[in-house]
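Input.
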Amino acid sequence: MGMPNRVKPRKGCALFLRTKQLKGRLTLLVHGRLKRDRSEAIWRQVGNVITNRNASRLEFERLLDGAKLYMRHHKVPKGMQRRVQRWYDYSWSRGRMQGGGDIHSALGILPDKLKTELAIHVNLKTLKKVSIFKECQPEFLHDLVLKMKAYIFTPGDLVCRKGEVAREMFIIADGILQVINDKGQVLTHMRAGDFFGEIGILNLDGFNRRTADVRSVGYSELFSLSREDVLSAMKDYPEAEDILQTMGRRRLLEARLQNAAEKAPYQDNSEKNENRQRKK
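Output.
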């Protein structure tokens, strides 16, 4: 019995099979290459992040070393040196040494339009928390938000003193501040969203002085708006000016009542002493 005849594949079919096999191998090769490329790209990105982080840290340490050298050279007291060290540590932890701070110092080279949009995104929420601005037009707030400047105060710092000429108002972004009277007593505490100094910059009834001392309890982050910037913005927005004037007068009245309440016990005591002397 002879061997069965083997069916020879047609040329077209064989070519199709070889093409399919080759295509499968190419697909695997391409997928493998793509995976490697993606992995390499991810690792490059991770490497860039680490490199940038290290560069920022090196710059931070360079600044800190310079500050330490300066303080040692000028024989700055140890307590002050520790305060400076803590400020640097705090600034690093809050990202202030990595492009933080106000919009001007961090992104000063950006075009004005882009800078404005970015400032609105970052700072508008803080401005909207301030009761004196809640009823103002969005356009007015947009004008102000780019002019806000950021400050950090360390524990125990006096932000302002009673009787000083008010050149700016402050908005608390983070931290706790104390309002202190002439006897050093704490009248009240202020927190994020609170503000002060608006009475002086609005020059209500010719009153342009600070009404109390304000001291930072811990580390505090504040935004300031200068008198010139606020008054300039109000010229373009009369409705906002009316709102600020009304709320400012209300706060001024409260401050005067508070001062009167503080002085009342002293006046009573002085009157009693005068009466006693007359009786004698």
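The CA atoms of residues 102 and 150 lie 5 Å apart.
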